[in-house]
Amino acid sequence: MMPVGLATAPSAPVEKREKVRELLRNMEVWTRGKPDAEMFISPIGGFHRDPKTRQILREATPDELKAHWDHIHMATAK
């Protein structure tokens, strides 16, 4: 297990930082493919989806990415 914060920690070893980034990218790709996923935000990316149309409304903002430096948020609905 590796902390999510390693994805953006300048002091993290490169191999660990890249491994966490890869895991986060894979989680985001998987979540984008699920229409019931309304939101996903991590330290390196994310999106918000319209709950009615299921279309992605917008990408996560730099402020949201910064606020999620050590965790992820994901919201789903049915």
Class derived from helix and strand content: alpha+beta
Strand order of the largest sheet: 3-2-1-4
Tell me the total number of β-strands: 4
Helical content band:
25-40%
Query: How much is the radius of gyration in Å?
Result: 13 Å
Oligomer: single chain
User: Strand portion, in percent?
Assistant: 15-25%
Mean pLDDT: 95
Q: Give a short account of the largest sheet.
A: 4 strands, antiparallel
Cα(first) to Cα(last) distance is: 30 Å
> Overall 3D geometry?
elongated
Tally the helices. Answer: 2
Give the ordered list of helices and strands: HEEEHE
Low-confidence stretches: none
Can you describe what's shown?
By secondary structure, the chain is an alpha+beta fold. It has two helices and four strands; from the N terminus they run H-E-E-E-H-E. The chain has helices at residues 14-32, 62-67; strands at residues 37-41, 46-49, 56-59, 73-76. A four-stranded antiparallel β-sheet has the order 3-2-1-4, with helices on one face. A hairpin with a 4-residue loop joins strand 1 (37-41) and strand 2 (46-49). The chain is elongated and about 40 Å long. The relative contact order is 0.20.
